[in-house]
Design brief:
6 helices, 136 residues, 6% strand, mainly alpha, 50% helix, two-stranded antiparallel sheet
Length: 136
Amino acid sequence: MNNSRFAISLHILTLLEKSIDEYTSSEYLAGSININPVLVRKELINLRNHGFLNSKEGKNGGSYLAKSADNITLGEIYNAVKQSNLLGISKNDPNPLCPVGKQINKHLNTVYESTEQALIKELSRETLADFSRKFN
């Protein structure tokens, strides 16, 4: 099951979109999200590695969007932070002698994949700019 990384990353990127033309500190981002700045910095590294933002270190440093919010989809953000199957993974090994058990994981994987692809397709219909416009 995905954790809160998508929500945190979307929050970060929305704040950066709102503060265009200026550096935004990880402390400011953490204050808005109400989480530890260390967690924000970890997400900033991931988002930078995926090309969503750039950062500048130092006293007057911070982060800013690397490209226009019109060119970032929520689907791209989701893909950058997803960690596991949307619906989870069975942690046990089914009985291989059972007619259901020996095939269940194959069929579950098909369901998981198609469900996640539908989610990504829907998320990809909205850009970061679209999402950001929902906030005053």
